[in-house]
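We emphasize that the prediction below concerns an isolated chain of 145 residues; any contacts that depend on oligomerization or on bound cofactors are therefore not represented. The input was used exactly as deposited, without trimming of termini.
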Amino acid sequence: MFRGRGAHYVRMKHYALTFLTSPELSEQELNSLQEKIISFLHQEGGVLGEKSRPIRKQLPSPIQKKAQAFLWSFDFSLEPTLLESLKQKLSAENQILRYTLLGAKPRSAFKKVPREETFALRKKEEKGKVEISQIEKKLEEILGE
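Result of the prediction step, given as a token string:
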């Protein structure tokens, strides 16, 4: 994906953002936080891809004295030069306990196999199976017993 700025073009890269938020947030606060994160992306010129709903998770070890947290994830595209500004905004947000930001392949880059094709492959595998009784008959024929 290219984004124009004057006479030159900058290549946007794909990223995956995963973060944990306080388990004490209400439904309204969760929605507000989601809108705030999306606005951070749009302010930086990012393009939001897939996003997941927050999932309550038990943490293996407490973070800021909390044993549970909401786990979120967003896929997005952004110019690499603007990534540092987004990191600063995420770090300043006090409702986010911890986050990680990774470079990722766009979801469309993964090969999608049609369901019919996978079904046909399974059928071929099933045809190749042989019963033990058939093997015993063939052995008797070969050995002449």
